[in-house]
Predict the 3D structure of the following.
Amino acid sequence: MQKLWFGDIKLFSEEYLKKLKGLAGITGVVPDNYQIHVPGYKVSDDILDRSPFPRGWTEWPAAKKDIEAGGDTDIAYPVYAGIAVQTDDAPILELLEACDRVGIDVSTHAGLWGYSGNVFPEMGFVDVFGEAIDEKMSPLAIPLCPNEEAVLAYEAESIVDVMKRYGFPLLNIDHGHFPPLANPHGLLGCACTRCRARASELGYDFDTMAEAVKELVLKLRRLTATGLEAVYKQATSYTDAISLLGAEEEVFKWLEFRSKTVSGHVKSVSERIIKALGKPVPIDSHIMPPSMAYLSGQDIALWSKSVDCVSPGWGSAVGWEEATIQNFAALARLLAGATGADEGFALEFLYRIFGYEDVGLPATIKGLEAREYSSFDVYKKEILLMADKIPAGTKILYPFDATQSMRGRMDEMAELIGSLKPEGIVCFNWGNENTDEELLSIGKCS
Ligand SMILES: [Zn+2]
């Protein structure tokens, strides 16, 4: 069974790696560095010269100002599509040597196009009204356009460069998605000229779809609390709700087109990487919370054909627990504000259409934000949904959250995941070591 650990590169001292292997059965690590979003690589100069991103970004006035102010902002440290900055690679070289001695794998980790559309708007995402995404609604994960050839080519080329340079046996890619639902504005794009052309290639009538999406937005602007209650009485899924809110069939085609765009992008990058390497490499990619992934352009069945393995995202934009909760909070705030409905009712509505009525989530946004719920139960819901949605024969690494939020429940988590007979898991505790007892609990997952 493959057992990976996703965490801060500083977490993986040789002593701790031995424990991870010996007690938890960890077979490989996926290192990252929170600030720069990759563990830190050198990239060949000629590759960087072909980057669509500005060379020497950290010296640019906007970035320099934020860096000097000590800010961890997305202007100072954008999440690039591919690897677009030279960084000190001593930590990754040390980790490769330590893992070699301990006998576990190190995976390449790099992002795709799902961020930085606000930093590099010339390659950015445009909605059906021709506008950029409203950053104020949520600064999280504003993507680049997924059909920009320069981005597609650069992602593959820069990833191949570091894979060859360091000899990584595995590749873990994330951020191949449209925005999380915490920013529902993201549902209205990408509608730039590149995406319009892509829609035609795929056989869609772009203008009809865009008109239907605009029409639905106008209907939603007129939605009242009474209207929301009428939808609540009949809807048992978000698909029902979208229909009952007045969406025409073309709106569903729009969602389908978005998911084909995203999985097509991931497939294209995967194929370019394998071709350039001249050999297959196991490619694993992060997926959003399964209850809502489709609305961020990730159709699990379609997506899983584009890679060798799927695994969970982590954190506030894509994590199966954190992003789910943030999405509920943001959507409830929006629905209540726009319709005048009670906040508790807005939450009840959302829990119903996303299948969360039985999870015991709080009746207030404040309660959600204060984490007055069981993280275990949220993971359980998403893990079982994934087990249901993933096509037979597709490899999946289930999430094993090893942070404080799962304290005291790790045996239960091992049992839950083990009951699904998985091919693997990916554990997460960003920068904190777990106790020996906790690692032994993870070791029980088989
Ligand atoms: Zn586009």
About this structure: The longest helix spans residues 249-277. The chain has a mean pLDDT of 94. The longest strand covers residues 2-8.
